[in-house]
Design brief:
The complex is a heterotrimer.
Chain A lengths: L15 H6 L4 H31 L6 H6 L11 H19 L3 H14 L8 H20 L31 H30 L12 H32 L11 E2 L2 E2 L7 H35 L6 H14 L15 H29 L8 H18 L1 H4 L2 H7 L3 H31 L5 H27 L13 H4 L2 H31 L57
Antiparallel strand pairs in A: 1-2
Helix pairs in contact in A: 2-4, 2-5, 2-6, 2-18, 5-7, 5-8, 6-7, 7-8, 8-9, 8-10, 9-11, 9-12, 9-15, 10-11, 11-12, 12-15, 12-16, 15-16, 16-18
Chain B lengths: L1 H10 L18 H37 L11 H24 L3 H31 L8 H32 L8 H28 L1
Helix pairs in contact in B: 2-5, 2-6, 3-4, 3-6, 4-5, 5-6
Chain C lengths: L2 H18 L10 H34 L14 H31 L7 E8 L2 E6 L35 E3 L2 E4 L3 E8 L4 E5 L4 E5 L5 E6 L4 E6 L12 E7 L1 H13 L2
Parallel strand pairs in C: 1-5, 4-10
Antiparallel strand pairs in C: 1-2, 2-3, 5-8, 6-7, 9-10
Helix pairs in contact in C: 1-2, 2-3
The chains are: A mainly alpha, B mainly alpha, C alpha+beta.
């Protein structure tokens, strides 16, 4: 069933540097991205726990704070500006260095070539460059903590004029904000490199017999996500360049006339803060689909595998992915309903936003339809996939409120928004990553992760994240604004403190629980139970090769695909699964 | 894929596979798939670049429409000469590719070198244009139109530097007599990228001529 | 399998808190506020039912179809079902938006009534200022160079303009009940946002723009106004109040302010 041997894309690497550092092997690069994301997510989580702590104990004296941030926390008491810079970096690190790396460039890099039967990505050198460019971007971002003035405080959305007038508008708005912009610009370049590889690989390197409509849904998600990234990051780069010029070169793209900041009259003229918002959110909305689509692909893959049933409505799922990707470019204005933009365009954006709910609902119904009539096996991977569905419903449903400008008149910039995007990005997408980890760990390492630890981690985290993020919706209904360092200045917020305290305790507990996962991950690499090459009796091509895979994946052979990706429990078949490369 | 190209030079070309052009519903290996992947990759790169210039263009029109401090930037005459140089370089590239198809290596070298030199001349001419504008009192932050002029021409110039690097790489390979059939794709990708830069330049000239 | 009941319990707890209104909107003080609450309630019922059914169904399939031997049901889907639930979702979601359009239109498509009380709003890091035109009904011109926060001139009212002499500046927003008010909102430095929970209204205040925004408050009282767009390190302290006064009291206050000029 294989074709004549063809010269491999690159020889087996020798030497430590070539094998593990500057590797051209998509598998190594995928693992590098994954660990970059693991590092970033723990950093981002630490920042969020610091934030939650401050919100509930704003006057606490913590000597560690003073050691880390002498100017930001004099006497050990966190200042509001320090809080805001921790918040800015939390959002930035999580969105870019966790949610835009691991789901796509981590899992996708490792498994896209294998799932399509290729021996590597289309451009291995470019692939290596994309990782190290991402790494450089992370270094520049982290450097912002250490420069005079510290990290920026304008939020991950960096709206001008706050982000454009330099240190006048606040601490951290000097070199810290500049480094932030430079880091993001570098990240845009890295993303583009990744997009080139993903798109070319998916279109041109598929195995014989692997038509687009036989692709696993993971591959479809990675493919569409790459297209979103390609189109979106270029616009973010443009916005970043314009912002940098306003900050450093005296231009007035975003800065209007008549600015009096901190007792200083500025010379700018005629720019528009709204222009930044349009450019940023034109990127920003597709970005959130970049964050969630790979997780949806993983969920589909696992729900099918562990129900021993084909995915319900494969075609509809593909159209839903395409629909979400396409429509995602036309809804950016829903982040700007209150911005002062034309209210008629707000109405238009709102209709389109509701329309995106439709393919998302299709996917949810189809996931449940996949489970219906199945033979569900509750591996840890499956638990995370099921948890993903529940969290996606909860997180997505609050979008129905926010997508209506009439309701957004109250909810904009409240904790309702914070609850919404955390549920969907900060939890559902993360669960997609957990699911992928437990599912593919045996293929990458040849060992199983520990199921007991996995299940404990799953249940505690699942309940924990519901405890952290659901109350945010109630806070939003009560009108609690977001991005507040503390709530001591308003009478109505005093009554909400018990909710904040509950959320803080839940956040600390849930963060502690994540160390169970970290332990499980590293311990299992060394001491995990050995796993066969197809431990889940799954159908896609990665399960036809040894665990861990040889350097060129298919050992010089080229698989031929004869079946769709989800042929489970086919009546009359000898086993309850038919692999994609099994004879026709 | 740089690795495989040098490998081919060192070890000779791989044995011909049973199907020449695979990939997609055919074989993923072989030169056919690599060529197609490179073309797809180029298309992706061009799409991103189009989005970058589109974003700048939309900012251009928004900014132009909303304020009354827009003063058109006078286009230095040298820009027309630069445009001619760039168009000529594209012609040179095409002539180079035609002659290569007929196997005339020496002619290819001449045309490709000409194109590369013209590209460098273009960049030099751009620098002169910027200096001329500075001398006339137009700097990056002088007014919104001049901001966009410098921004857009600089972005184009950065792209062009990339293009010149690609042309230069092929130039070096040609001089070292390493332009085997495996380099065909690299030549074509560089050529298409170059033509794209030409088109973007003409677009920018039109933008500033009519609206700038 | 335990996951099924866990999902059910979480769903029931969440529904309980939503139905119990433990942390909820303050009562509305305007007709817009009442219309808002109706739209919210409609959305809450639609989404709540979808939420409840989806989570319950998820829990149910987890429990019912756990592996107990036997074979799974081989099926690639059901086109009729797809069409039905897709159409239902589309109708519900888009229906909700269309229903809310009246509310959005009343706030933003229509201009303020001609007899609205005009008040200028000026925001800066990190304070609110409001300006009333005074007995002459005209706002004086402003000049950035004449801004003097300590001296009580946050707007920078131009001392050469006679129309500005009787302008009344206030740190809080006082309005008469039952009368339309038009705010003209400006910012001196960065983007801020005016939000009154009881009015169910908010609006970004953008430097370089003068944004008109109208409302009518019908209930006397004092309502907190938290800045609702990140504006810097004092964002969480940027507080003012909306004081809705009986019309006679408001007139008295205006006269007192005018007399002090």
């Amino acid at each position: 069933m294989s074709s004549p041997v063809v010269h491999p894309a690159h020889h087996a690497p020798t030497g430590f540097i070539r094998r593990y550092i500057f590797s051209l092997d998509h598998k190594v690069i995928g693992i590098q991205y994954y660990f970059l994301a693991v590092f970033s997510v723990f950093l981002g989580m630490a920042l969020s726990v610091l934030m939650r702590f401050h919100m509930v104990y704003p006057d606490a004296k913590v000597s560690l704070f003073e050691k880390l941030w002498p100017t930001g926390a004099p006497g050990g008491i966190m200042t509001p500006e320090l809080y805001l810079s921790l918040m800015t970096m939390h959002g930035t690190i999580m969105v870019f260095f966790v949610l835009t790396t691991a789901p796509q460039s981590g899992f996708g890099n490792y498994f896209l070539p294998i799932q399509i039967g290729a021996e590597d990505m289309a451009f291995p050198v470019l692939n290596m460059l994309s990782f190290w460019t991402t790494f450089l971007a992370l270094m520049v971002m982290v450097a912002a903590f250490f420069v005079p003035g510290g990290a920026p405080l304008a939020g991950w959305t960096a709206y001008p004029p706050l982000s454009a007038v330099g240190p006048l508008s606040g601490p951290g708005e000097g070199l810290g904000q500049t480094l932030w912009i430079i880091s993001i610009a570098i990240f845009c370049g890295a993303s583009l490199m990744g997009a080139i590889n993903f798109i070319a690989t998916t279109i041109d390197l598929r195995a014989r017999g692997l038509s687009m409509m036989r692709l696993p849904l993971t591959c479809w998600s990675w493919f569409v996500t790459a297209i979103l990234g390609l189109l979106g990051f270029a616009v973010l780069l443009a916005a970043g360049v314009l912002l940098l010029l306003d900050r450093l070169a005296g231009t007035s793209f975003f800065l209007p006339a008549g600015l009096l900041v901190n007792d200083q009259i500025l010379n700018h003229k005629g720019g528009s803060p709204l222009l930044w918002q349009h450019l940023f959110w034109f990127f920003g909305h597709p970005e959130v689909y970049i964050a969630i689509l790979p997780g949806m692909g993983v969920a589909s893959q696992l729900l099918s595998t562990f129900s021993r049933k084909p995915i319900f409505g494969y075609r509809a799922m593909v159209y839903a992915i395409l629909g979400i990707g396409f429509l995602g470019f036309f809804v950016w204005g829903h982040h700007m309903f209150m911005s002062g933009m034309n209210p008629y365009s707000a109405f238009a954006f709102s209709i389109l936003t509701m329309s995106i709910g439709v393919p998302s609902a299709i996917k949810t119904f189809n996931w449940i339809g996949t489970l219906w009539g199945g033979r569900i096996q509750f591996t840890t991977a499956m638990l995370f996939a099921l948890g993903f569905v529940s969290l996606f419903v909860t997180g997505g449903i609050s979008g129905i409120f926010l997508g209506q400008p009439a309701l957004d008149l109250y909810f904009h910039d409240t904790y309702f928004v914070v609850g919404h995007f955390h549920m969907i990005m900060g939890v559902a997408a993360i669960f997609g990553m957990f699911a992928g980890t437990f599912y593919w760990f045996p293929k990458v390492t040849g060992k199983f992760m520990n199921e007991t630890l996995g299940k404990i981690h799953f249940y505690l985290t699942f309940i924990g994240v519901y405890c952290i993020f659901t109350p945010m919706h109630f806070l939003g209904i009560a009108g609690n604004p977001r991005r507040y360092a503390d709530f001591t200045n308003f009478d109505f917020m005093g009554k909400l403190m018990p909710v904040h305290t509950f959320m803080t305790h839940a956040a600390i507990a849930t963060m502690v629980v994540q160390f169970i996962f970290l332990f499980n991950l590293f311990w299992s690499i060394k001491k995990g139970k050995p796993a066969p090459s197809n431990p889940w009796n799954a159908t896609t091509l990665e399960w036809t090769i040894p665990s861990p895979p040889p350097f060129d994946n298919f050992a010089g052979k080229h698989p031929v695909v004869n079946h769709g990706p989800y042929e489970y429990s086919v009546p009359g078949a000898p086993k309850d699964y038919i692999m994609q490369s099994d004879p026709a | 894929m740089a690795g495989s190209l040098t490998t081919e030079i060192v070890h000779g070309p791989p044995p011909p596979p049973t199907r020449n052009f695979g990939g997609g519903d055919g074989e993923p290996g072989g030169r056919g798939a690599h060529r197609r992947a490179s073309m797809t990759g180029l298309l992706v790169l061009l799409a991103a670049s189009v989005m970058l210039f589109a974003a700048f263009t939309s900012a251009f029109f928004v900014r132009r429409g909303m304020s009354n401090d827009w003063v058109d930037t006078p286009l230095p005459d040298i820009l027309w000469i630069n445009t001619a140089i760039l168009v000529a370089s594209s012609f040179a590239i095409e002539l180079a590719r035609r002659t290569l198809r007929s196997g005339k290596r020496a002619a290819f070298d001449r045309y490709w070198t000409a194109a590369t030199i013209l590209g460098v001349l273009f960049l030099g001419g751009q620098y002169l244009a910027w200096r001329q504008l500075n001398a006339a009192g137009f700097y990056l932050a002088t007014n919104p139109s001049s901001s966009f002029f410098f921004l857009l021409t600089c972005t184009h110039a950065v792209h062009l530097l990339g293009g010149i690097s690609a042309l230069g790489y092929i130039e070096v390979q040609a001089l070292l007599l390493r332009l085997g059939p495996g380099k065909r794709t690299a030549i074509d990708v560089s050529a298409y990228f170059w033509h794209f830069l030409d088109a973007i330049w003409i677009y920018l000239m039109a933008l500033f001529f009519f609206w700038g | 399998m335990l996951l099924g009941p866990v999902v059910w319990v979480l769903t029931l707890v969440i529904c309980y808190f939503f139905l119990g209104h433990y942390w909820w909107f303050p009562p509305p003080i305007s007709q817009h506020g009442q219309a808002y609450d109706q739209q919210f309630t409609a959305t809450l019922w639609v989404t709540g039912i979808i939420f409840f059914c989806a989570q319950m169904a998820l829990g149910w399939v987890i429990v019912k179809f756990r592996d107990r031997g036997g074979t799974a049901h081989y099926s690639h889907g059901n086109n009729v079902l797809e069409v039905v639930w897709t159409s239902a979702t589309a109708v519900l979601f888009i229906g909700l938006v269309l229903a809310g359009t009246r509310i959005w239109a009343a706030v933003h498509f229509e201009d303020a009534p001609a007899d609205a009380l005009k008040v200028e709003v000026m925001t800066k890091q990190f304070a609110w200022s409001f300006r009333y035109p005074g007995p002459d009904g005209k706002f004086g011109k402003t000049d950035l160079k004449q801004v003097n926060d300590q001296g009580g001139n946050p707007f920078g009212i131009d001392d050469k303009d006679p129309a500005g002499k009787d302008d009344i500046t206030s740190a809080s927003l006082k309005v008469p009940a039952g009368r339309p008010v038009e705010l003209i909102m400006r910012s001196r430095d960065v983007i801020h946002n005016f939000f009154v929970r009881e009015l169910r209204l908010k609006q970004d205040i953008v430097p370089g723009m003068e944004i008109p925004f109208h409302f009518q408050a019908d209930q006397v009282g004092t309502y907190e106004v938290p800045c609702s767009e990140l504006c810097g390190l004092g964002h969480h302290q940027m507080r003012t109040t909306l004081e809705v006064m009986a019309p006679a009291d408001f007139q008295k206050w205006l006269q007192e302010q005018a007399a002090q000029k």
